Amino acid sequence: MNHLMIAPVLLPAVLGALQLLWMRGDLPLQRVFSSTGTALLVVVALILLGQASAGEVMVYRLGNWAAPFGIVLMLDRLAAMMVLLTSVVALIVQIYAIGSGWDRKGWHFHALWQFQLMGVCGAFLTGDAFNLFVFFEILLIASYGLMTHGGGEMRVRAGVQYVVVNLAGSALFLVALGVLYAVTGTLNMADMAARVAQMPPEDTALLRTGAVLIMLVFAIKAALVPLHFWLPSTYGNAPGPVAALFAIMTKVGVYAIIRFFTLIFPHDTVAGTLASEILLPAALITLAVGQIGIMGSRQLLRVGAFAALGSVGTLMIAVSQMNAEAMTAAIYYMVHSTLAAATLFLVLDLSARWRGDYWLRAGTVMPQSGLVSALFFAAAVAVVGLPPFSGFIGKLMVLDATAGAPAMPLIWSVILVTSLIALVGMSRVGTKLYLKPFGEVVLGGGGGSADFPTAPLRSDEPAPWLSVTAIMALLATVLALTVFAGPATRFAQATADQLYDPALYLKAVLADQEGTK
Amino acid sequence: MELLVSSAIGLLTAAGIYLVLRQRSFPVVLGMTLLSYAINVFLFATGRLVVNAPPVLQKGVTTYTDPLPQALVLTAIVISFGMTAVVVVMAIGSFLEGGDDRIDMPEADRIPETGDTQRGPRA
């Protein structure tokens, strides 16, 4: 067994606990340990990605118990890629959080950050449906703490809503798992897939109910319309770096939908075409709501929240096609949209802090506005999907993959029209913030309050280099995804092919069990 | 017994959902608790209802009760217990910060007052 596979779960768990036990109140030490830990996680994820690229599906049997009885962790291309994406985003955003002073606004920021990473990595790696629930809970509990980090009335109020929605989602998750267990008698995902495939078609009513229930659960996490209501006020009121990290959280929902509906309920078998029939309209409306929301936002982080919503819509359009070509596009776009949304959140947070105002309205001239506006311009171009950034390639791949679909005219028109709407919306934000700063509002009154980690930047101060470097590093990853679009696409292609060959996954878990208990 | 268990699950779920949809945080917390009870009983029933049967292999016994849902319920109870504590603390925090226990976002979350640079009204 490859023991490195469990490192993305163990490393953050140990570090988080250590920070609570031994580094309480010692912020410099927490910063050093936490960022070193996340950097180590990037290294581990790179090694795992290298191993997974060989095409083999690797299994880690906890306690060395045989498969349907013990819990297994699985590492295939998709899981390895998502762990790497998580760790890279987490490292850069964490550096931004340190540079911006957000981690100073409350207790245990870095410990919660590590527990969040533990939950997210675990959710990507696990091969057991109930274990997935447990990791979802871990990442949610950590996210409740992070979301309300720093306090303040609106943030705590939004936090209560976020907690209640997710508690209801967890309740639904348990119901769905109960139904699936009652029908199949197993919780191991590979075993469940094998049993579902053998089920006679006339006995599948309850199974289809379970499939739809579990899709609803993941749709809440992915924030698909009409289950998206928690997202704008959560992301809009969270601290900027936390909102940037949450860009990966909606992708956990998308990942789970991809995993369940390629492995356990593949297209045109037991659950039939049910999933894609529900997902496609929901995805189209999500995209439209997100991009129109950018136009209508009056608060900076909400712009990012709606942009993230729109990117989930585009992503799910590709996923709902349920074929390998569209899945290639979805995987490429998933990486791009996570990086781009995180960049946008950081730039918006930077602008809000330097202006000392979260509202989208003309005010006095912002210091260093040239630098920030350049960063915003790049982030907005990446999010909307214009060349030269990878969003353009991603959207092109999605359009190309849906060219043969029956709903092609509708899909194309929604994607293209909403791209224009998003472009206009982003132009509006940029114009108001950076080009026309001659309003009547005198900015800078909010420094030192719960909403801001630092006082607004004065015009004679130099730019805090750590925050700016972090944003540039994220932009560099987006650029790298564009420059190396060829290898990235080939990897996405191989990942999609692996997803649509579930026999590999099943064989890895259920066969080859020598030496287990 | 099946009728008793299923109607109990149904009643608890219905009451829970009704309470969760209220606009004050206290009924919502109670609703979440009821909902988690309903789900625990439901999970328990997914292993089929068997009375007076052992969960662990024994000699000379042919009927068993499924031990796995019991383990699942145990996990679910621990998690929902912890989550209830979290949501109560957050609801109290929201009450202390905002001065009321409403669960919906106030108007000030969307519309800025002139000259106010924070995201909401200051006390």
Automatic annotation (TrEMBL), chain A:
<feature type="domain" description="NADH:quinone oxidoreductase/Mrp antiporter transmembrane">
    <location>
        <begin position="128"/>
        <end position="420"/>
    </location>
</feature>
<feature type="transmembrane region" description="Helical">
    <location>
        <begin position="120"/>
        <end position="142"/>
    </location>
</feature>
<dbReference type="InterPro" id="IPR001750">
    <property type="entry name" value="ND/Mrp_TM"/>
</dbReference>
<dbReference type="GO" id="GO:0042773">
    <property type="term" value="P:ATP synthesis coupled electron transport"/>
</dbReference>
<feature type="transmembrane region" description="Helical">
    <location>
        <begin position="32"/>
        <end position="50"/>
    </location>
</feature>
<feature type="transmembrane region" description="Helical">
    <location>
        <begin position="374"/>
        <end position="398"/>
    </location>
</feature>
<feature type="transmembrane region" description="Helical">
    <location>
        <begin position="205"/>
        <end position="230"/>
    </location>
</feature>
<feature type="transmembrane region" description="Helical">
    <location>
        <begin position="81"/>
        <end position="99"/>
    </location>
</feature>
<protein>
    <submittedName>
        <fullName>Multisubunit potassium/proton antiporter, PhaD subunit (TC 2.A.63.1.1)</fullName>
    </submittedName>
</protein>
<feature type="transmembrane region" description="Helical">
    <location>
        <begin position="274"/>
        <end position="294"/>
    </location>
</feature>
<keyword id="KW-1133">Transmembrane helix</keyword>
<dbReference type="InterPro" id="IPR003918">
    <property type="entry name" value="NADH_UbQ_OxRdtase"/>
</dbReference>
<dbReference type="InterPro" id="IPR050586">
    <property type="entry name" value="CPA3_Na-H_Antiporter_D"/>
</dbReference>
<feature type="transmembrane region" description="Helical">
    <location>
        <begin position="410"/>
        <end position="429"/>
    </location>
</feature>
<feature type="transmembrane region" description="Helical">
    <location>
        <begin position="465"/>
        <end position="485"/>
    </location>
</feature>
<dbReference type="GO" id="GO:0005886">
    <property type="term" value="C:plasma membrane"/>
</dbReference>
<feature type="transmembrane region" description="Helical">
    <location>
        <begin position="242"/>
        <end position="262"/>
    </location>
</feature>
<feature type="transmembrane region" description="Helical">
    <location>
        <begin position="331"/>
        <end position="354"/>
    </location>
</feature>
<keyword id="KW-0472">Membrane</keyword>
<keyword id="KW-0812">Transmembrane</keyword>
<dbReference type="GO" id="GO:0008137">
    <property type="term" value="F:NADH dehydrogenase (ubiquinone) activity"/>
</dbReference>
<comment type="similarity">
    <text>Belongs to the CPA3 antiporters (TC 2.A.63) subunit D family.</text>
</comment>
TrEMBL record, chain B:
<keyword id="KW-0812">Transmembrane</keyword>
<dbReference type="GO" id="GO:0005886">
    <property type="term" value="C:plasma membrane"/>
</dbReference>
<feature type="compositionally biased region" description="Basic and acidic residues">
    <location>
        <begin position="99"/>
        <end position="113"/>
    </location>
</feature>
<feature type="region of interest" description="Disordered">
    <location>
        <begin position="98"/>
        <end position="123"/>
    </location>
</feature>
<feature type="transmembrane region" description="Helical">
    <location>
        <begin position="28"/>
        <end position="51"/>
    </location>
</feature>
<comment type="similarity">
    <text>Belongs to the CPA3 antiporters (TC 2.A.63) subunit C family.</text>
</comment>
<dbReference type="Pfam" id="PF00420">
    <property type="entry name" value="Oxidored_q2"/>
</dbReference>
<keyword id="KW-1133">Transmembrane helix</keyword>
<dbReference type="InterPro" id="IPR050601">
    <property type="entry name" value="CPA3_antiporter_subunitC"/>
</dbReference>
<feature type="transmembrane region" description="Helical">
    <location>
        <begin position="6"/>
        <end position="21"/>
    </location>
</feature>
<dbReference type="InterPro" id="IPR039428">
    <property type="entry name" value="NUOK/Mnh_C1-like"/>
</dbReference>
<keyword id="KW-1003">Cell membrane</keyword>
<feature type="transmembrane region" description="Helical">
    <location>
        <begin position="71"/>
        <end position="96"/>
    </location>
</feature>
<protein>
    <submittedName>
        <fullName>Multisubunit potassium/proton antiporter, PhaC subunit (TC 2.A.63.1.1)</fullName>
    </submittedName>
</protein>
<keyword id="KW-0472">Membrane</keyword>
